[in-house]
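Deliverable D5.2: sample structural annotation.
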Amino acid sequence: MRILIVGVGALGGTVATRALRAGMPVWLATRTADSAQVLRSSGLRVSGIGGTSTAECVHVAPIAEYAGQKFELIVLATKAHDALEAAPFLLNLLVSGGALLPIQNGGVSQMLSDRLGSGAVLGGLSNLGATMIQPGVYEQRNAGYILIGELAGGFSQRVGNIAKTLSVAVETRVTPNLRGALWAKLLINCSVTTLGAIAARTMRQYITSFSGKEVFRHTYGEALSVALGNGTRPERMIVEPIPPGWHGTIVPGNDYDAWIEQIVAVYGDLKPSMLQDFERGRQTEVDFINGYVARLGRQIGVPIAMNAAIVDMVHAIEQRQLRPDSSRIDELLRKVE
């Protein structure tokens, strides 16, 4: 299976290195010629969980230079906004029956499928924890995996074949409820990652305050209502995605507190990736996370006031009108009271 990996950051670079080391026929695409030249000169190296792997001979070029070539599988590991921009071009690089596999956070897979109207788009997500030390040098932080499936649900032979192929490099699993899995991760991204970034705190830190608890409850509850209102039942990943006592809204209580503690145990001490975007002056993916929830909620008539307020605040931080700070959580609660 000829494979093109688009995006050679932390996730794409880790997968690419392990795939090349395993002898898989993999090509890499970057945004610029300079980036491609750096990787050709340095090769790739990943260390950490899973051991050390290196790849010295790397076929890498700017994405535009692949025009006219054909691949059975294209793995899209860019930032979400870059994925939407690149996808129409990438579809032309697929052989008949080939697949485009986005593995970004948020609603990217579904958005691409809706925009392109193509059955070639699969759904995927990754819980591989990886960091790019410098271009071509990566560290894998956990023993995570890639999860893939058909957006329409169920099993298919092509998904099974892709999972078998990728598993030579990284653990790859298949689910018949890919939309449910995407939403399970989206719920956490909306309420744990984004709120932590806005507050410049970990979840364990911000959830201790009354405002932190309430903003989390509103954010998660709205996102879950949108998922269920859209006909999707989130799939259990780390914790049961539907809180105890759920009847269209989150009901605080001892069972709910215990459920929160399960989330804190897994995610409570992680530095939000969106906070790193703020620190580096980069565009965030909030439009594909809380923004996706807000847009879909408006379409189906589900209240999304907190998620909409979060999107506005993240954009204000991106534009340097605000700074991440714990006081932002208090501001959010006042906006929706």
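Annotation notes: The chain has two domains: 3-176, 180-336. DSSP finds 13 helices and twelve strands in the chain.
The annotation will be released with the project's public dataset once the embargo ends.
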